[in-house]
Write a structure and sequence with these properties.
By secondary structure, this protein is mainly α. The chain is 88% helix and 0% strand.
Length: 154
């Protein structure tokens, strides 16, 4: 396997884990949890899910720019000659990381605190904020994947 193929594979797998994980959580797990569990149990389950998923997101957060910059230098002569779509993808990556950091550093601790204190309405509110931000991040992630697949000429 060539270096270019290896770097590209790591890049794609990182994106699949992050965006696919959000898709699974939003479209599959969330409705199933709502159907199967009552309020406090739902909140407790999400407190088990998020940290496990976030370990993998952190891997993606690190690997995506490393492999992305690697591909830029392997396929182009640098940022100046990279196609515009690559630059757009880099900008959207920054947006995704900012949303993820907000969730992991602000919203998740609020959820943890509410559940520990058995303040269920506060926990529901914190989970709702996480859900909205994950939904936005999922949309941004799908846009990035679509741009990568299309490789537009803008």
């Amino acid at each position: 396997m060539s270096l270019v193929a290896f770097v590209y594979t790591l890049h794609v797998l990182s994106a699949v884990v992050w965006v696919g994980g959000m898709f699974f959580a939003w479209m599959i797990l969330r409705p199933a949890v709502i159907a199967a569990l009552e309020g406090p149990s739902r909140l407790k389950l999400w407190l088990q899910v998020f940290p496990r998923f976030f370990v993998w997101v952190w891997c993606a957060v690190v690997l995506l720019p490393v492999t992305g910059i690697g591909m830029i230098h392997l396929n182009f002569s640098g940022f100046q000659t990279a196609p515009r779509y690559v630059q757009v993808m880099m900008g959207l990556y920054v947006v995704m990381v900012a949303l993820f950091l907000r969730i992991s550093t602000l919203n998740l601790p609020q959820l943890r605190k509410a559940v520990a204190a058995e303040q269920w309405p506060d926990g529901v509110a914190a989970l709702g904020r996480i859900r909205r931000l994950v939904g936005i991040n999922l949309i941004v992630g799908i846009v990035v994947v679509a741009i990568a697949a299309m490789r537009p000429t803008f």
